[in-house]
Amino acid sequence: MEQFRNIGIIGRLGSSQVLDTIRRLKRFLVERHPHVILEENIAEVLPGHGMQTSSRQRLGETCDLVIVVGGSGRHARVVLEAADLAGLPVRGVLSDALPAGETFFGTHRVLGRLNRLQDRNLLQACRFHLGTGDQAVRRSTADTIEAQGGRLGTIIHPAAILSPSAEIGAGTLVAAGAIIGVSAVLAESGLVNTGASIDHDCRLD
What is the pLDDT of residue 11? Predict the structure, then answer.
């Protein structure tokens, strides 16, 4: 790696798996390269890292190689499209990966970082849906929202088929082409992806 003068690390936060990957990558690089720079948002969630930090823009200017760790935001686009097609008003998006004021997937505005889940006014004004396919993150974030007094919003794509007797937990996404059978039960913040089928009397926890 001698050919790289400076190596930067950027991550899409919000997943314990992403953070674990970033920690292992940092250790690997530091053992082999003297000039590793953390993007400032990553640095905030890695206390005691003892490394140089930089804004995302400066990383692009000073680094020969920038490594991006994390999801692509594709699942969030599935969520937003389903909400749009279902006619649900979307106030905006919270993201640690995008700057406030930027637009995401069309006209959806980034309202700020995930720490705005501590904002009581926002919690009271909106219902929240989780734009990640990582079920562990969905559950933990849903618990955080509800513990703060917030509410979860359920999104059902208009091309999904649901039995009237099915029970759908708050915060669940039922994507396009999914089929939910008679007396099926979906737990809170569940995820039934595109074309999936939950048959009669099944329970998805």
Answer: 74
